[in-house]
Specification:
The protein is globular and about 30 Å long. It has a single domain, classed as Glutaredoxin. It has helices spanning 16-28, 45-50, 71-83, and strands at 4-10, 33-39, 57-60, 64-66. A four-stranded mixed beta sheet has the order 2-1-3-4, with helices on one face. The chain has 84 residues and is an alpha+beta fold.
Length: 84
């Protein structure tokens, strides 16, 4: 079974809360979810894949981008990805 990759590009300090929400949600699902966090200004790995990002953005399996984030939206997006 392949893992669901959840990437988050943190662009500012106000996005820090989303990191913990993503990690907590992923932890509920054990080894099924892999989390990768990028910090704008420090990490450049995501630029080749996604280009310039100016707003905290969660990306699931390299395809689904979500930048309007809340705890509910994060949890639902990860659970939907696991079901598909």
């Amino acid at each position: 079974m392949s893992k669901t990759l959840v990437e988050f590009i943190n662009t500012c300090s106000c996005c820090d809360e989303h990191i913990q929400t993503i990690k907590n949600t992923a932890q509920k699902h054990g080894d099924q979810v892999e989390v990768k966090i990028y910090y704008a200004g420090k990490d450049v790995d995501y630029l080749k894949k996604y280009g310039m990002v100016t707003k905290g953005t969660m990306i699931i399996d390299g395809r689904k981008k979500i930048d309007n984030l809340s705890k509910t939206i994060i949890e639902k997006a990860i659970e939907d990805a696991l079901r598909s």
